[in-house]
Design goal:
It is a single chain. The protein has about 280 residues and is α+β, with helices and mostly antiparallel strands. The chain has a domain of about 180 residues: Beta Barrel (Lipocalin). The chain is built from 2 helices and 13 strands; from the N terminus they run αβββββββαββββββ. Strands 1, 2, 3, 4, 5, 6, 7, 8, 9, 10, 11, 12 and 13 form a 13-stranded antiparallel β-sheet that branches.
């Protein structure tokens, strides 16, 4: 009876140990199963670093341009090449054959008018080199060439007599007034330009708006002996003008008997290639 009791106590003790050990094992397993969830929560809260290697799907460069989807294995291909922004044209190029010719200092603008001075016929000539303007020559299609507004500084017109110069400036052209300082011609149409350039002298007609002393009228200049070359353009353009159209009144001077209404305005042109 005593042996049975001793053996029975031993069996009961072992049973208690097994039960307690199983409980501890189950608790440990439960804690281990919860650990990944806690780790995932910590990873979700942590900032995500940008991957340095390519991943599947479309990729964008620094400017947001889309490249080809990266592939793996033998099918892997390089991203689509993007055109260089430096190589793309910013503006349209200058048309081939177009050249700008600037009126040079060799150009002179002149007026010629006849008068009866002290009982004898006399031809008055006044001129100035102060002329500006340009010609846009289309060498591929000369008929499309254009001419800018031509400006003549009337304040600098000179004749053979300083007193006459003063009368022209203050009493006839009134060019002492800055509003009347320039005689301008704005070409509207050009006829006589060739279809192809050659060394043959040309006769060209320019029609446009002529402004003298603040009055604008349509006038025509005929340019003769016009020669066009790579080094320059030369020729003489002349227009017949009526003083009355521009209200150019000759002052009453005793020794000047008469001055006709018509006079000529001419430009001895010299233009050279420029920018």
């Amino acid at each position: 009876m005593q042996k049975f009791t001793s053996k029975g106590g031993l069996i009961i003790a072992l049973f208690i140990l097994v039960v307690a050990g199983g409980a501890l094992y189950m608790k440990s397993s439960a804690q281990t199963a919860q650990q990944p969830e806690s780790t995932q929560q910590e990873q979700a809260a942590a900032p995500i670093d940008t991957p340095t290697s390519a991943s599947s799907g479309s990729a964008l460069d620094a400017d947001g341009d889309e490249y080809a989807t990266p592939q793996t294995g033998s099918e892997q291909s390089a991203p689509k090449s993007q055109p260089s922004r430096e190589s793309q044209p910013i503006s349209a190029p200058t048309p081939a054959g177009a050249t700008v010719y600037r009126i040079s200092g060799s150009t002179r603008a002149s007026f010629i008018i006849d008068e009866v001075l002290r009982g004898s016929p006399f031809t008055v000539v006044g001129s100035t080199p102060d002329v500006t303007g340009s010609i846009d020559l289309d060498k591929t299609n000369p008929e499309k060439s254009t001419i800018s507004t031509i400006r003549i500084n009337a304040q600098t017109l000179k004749t053979d007599d300083p007193k006459r110069d003063g009368a022209i400036k203050f009493l006839i052209l009134h060019s002492n007034d800055s509003a009347n300082q320039y005689i301008t011609f704005e070409p509207k149409t050009i006829s006589g330009l060739p279809k192809a350039l050659s060394s043959t002298p040309l006769t060209i007609t320019l029609q446009g708006d002529l402004t003298i002393s603040g009055i604008t009228k349509q006038e025509a200049f005929t340019a003769k002996n016009v020669i066009i070359s790579d080094t320059g353009i030369t020729g003489t353009a002349t227009a017949k003008i009526l003083r009355s159209d521009f209200k150019l009144t000759i002052p009453n001077i005793p020794f000047v008997a008469s001055v006709p209404d018509e006079f000529s305005l001419s430009i001895d042109l010299s233009a050279v290639p420029g920018t």
